[in-house]
From TrEMBL:
<dbReference type="GO" id="GO:0035089">
    <property type="term" value="P:establishment of apical/basal cell polarity"/>
</dbReference>
<dbReference type="GO" id="GO:0031122">
    <property type="term" value="P:cytoplasmic microtubule organization"/>
</dbReference>
<dbReference type="Pfam" id="PF01302">
    <property type="entry name" value="CAP_GLY"/>
</dbReference>
<dbReference type="GO" id="GO:0072686">
    <property type="term" value="C:mitotic spindle"/>
</dbReference>
<protein>
    <submittedName>
        <fullName>GH21682</fullName>
    </submittedName>
</protein>
<comment type="similarity">
    <text>Belongs to the TBCB family.</text>
</comment>
<dbReference type="Pfam" id="PF14560">
    <property type="entry name" value="Ubiquitin_2"/>
</dbReference>
<dbReference type="InterPro" id="IPR045172">
    <property type="entry name" value="TBCB_Ubl"/>
</dbReference>
<dbReference type="GO" id="GO:0051010">
    <property type="term" value="F:microtubule plus-end binding"/>
</dbReference>
<dbReference type="GO" id="GO:0007309">
    <property type="term" value="P:oocyte axis specification"/>
</dbReference>
<dbReference type="GO" id="GO:0007021">
    <property type="term" value="P:tubulin complex assembly"/>
</dbReference>
<dbReference type="GO" id="GO:0005938">
    <property type="term" value="C:cell cortex"/>
</dbReference>
<feature type="domain" description="CAP-Gly">
    <location>
        <begin position="184"/>
        <end position="226"/>
    </location>
</feature>
<dbReference type="GO" id="GO:0005813">
    <property type="term" value="C:centrosome"/>
</dbReference>
<dbReference type="GO" id="GO:0035371">
    <property type="term" value="C:microtubule plus-end"/>
</dbReference>
<dbReference type="GO" id="GO:0005634">
    <property type="term" value="C:nucleus"/>
</dbReference>
<dbReference type="InterPro" id="IPR000626">
    <property type="entry name" value="Ubiquitin-like_dom"/>
</dbReference>
């Protein structure tokens, strides 16, 4: 029992996450959040930072460019969904998509200058407290990190020439060896992906994604990963023949 309590106590109480929103789809800032906060409390916090309304807000969780889940249970704890730093929370303003286009409804709109002059606006609050995009130093740091990440991604992708031997290391999976079979974009996804034919059936496909073939290999021998997960080098095929073992 004491060992279980020690494991629980050893879990970090806070996580850091990047935040983007449906207005610009750009990661704007990084925030530190308590793992035991509810999704309702998270939305209230994001309301202040993004200008969206907590009552009509939809929050999605991304790992890189891949959607992990949507936060549909406001009573759930954040730690139930997020177990590591560096994931992205994407805030969607569903109010903007409700479609109040009925001509019989009079629309209330502020000009940009009128909104700038309001003292009770979310934008004014962010400016006064130097939060989000109004924290110039933080934004410069975020932009520098983004450029550094993009440059590293491109440099690693250039090394992944088709036909090269490689090792693939993805968190939560064993290190796998294989051959680079594809280098480029995937339809419907952002970024560059490296297609690998593994030496063992430890993949997820046969070189196809969503019905489109990018290379050909046996079922479960293919996979597509980020260039950052691929190390190109002299990685000979390992001997998996167990018949010679005593």
């Amino acid at each position: 029992m004491s060992e279980i309590m020690q494991l629980v106590d050893s879990e970090p109480k806070y996580i850091t996450a990047n935040v983007s929103n449906s207005h610009n789809d750009v990661v704007a800032f990084e925030i530190k959040l308590a793992r035991d906060m509810t999704i309702a409390q998270l939305k209230t916090k994001l309301e202040i930072l993004t200008g969206g309304s907590a009552s009509t807000m939809k929050v999605e969780l991304y790992k890189g460019d891949s959607l992990v889940t949507s936060f549909n249970n406001n009573d759930a704890k954040l730690g139930f969904y997020i177990d590591c730093d560096g994931m992205r929370l994407h805030v969607i303003d569903t109010f903007a998509s409700f479609g109040f286009d009925n001509e019989s409804v009079e629309k209330f709109e502020l000009t940009k200058d009128q909104y700038e002059q309001r003292n009770d606006s979310v934008r004014n609050f962010l400016k006064q407290n130097r939060l989000g995009k109004y924290n110039e130093e933080e934004m410069q740091q975020m932009e520098a990190k983004r450029r550094e990440h993009a440059e590293e991604l491109l440099n690693r992708a250039e090394l992944c020439t088709v036909g090269s031997r490689c090792e693939v290391t993805v968190p939560g999976n064993p290190t796998r060896r294989g051959t680079v079979m594809y280098n480029g974009p995937l339809e419907g996804k952002n970024g560059i992906f490296i297609g690998v034919q593994y030496d063992e059936p430890l993949g997820k496909n046969n070189g196809s994604v969503a019905g489109k073939s990018y290379f050909v290999c046996p079922p479960n021998y293919g996979g597509f990963v980020s260039p950052l997960s691929v190390q190109v080098g002299d990685f000979p095929v390992e001997n998996f023949d167990l018949d010679d073992e005593l």
